[in-house]
Amino acid sequence: MKTSTKATLIALAAALADDADARKLLEVYGNLSEHLSDAAIDLIAADGEVLSWA
Hints:
Elements: H1 3-17, H2 20-25, H3 32-47
């Protein structure tokens, strides 16, 4: 997976964690927000990388 893709997934997880309205709108897709958060945590833990985005 490209570093830019990883950074984007982490950014999306962070944005959703801070946006209750968005999480509510995405509930029709199941626990998408939680899955993205889990994926972000796994990516960070697996790579030990520091990813940044602007």
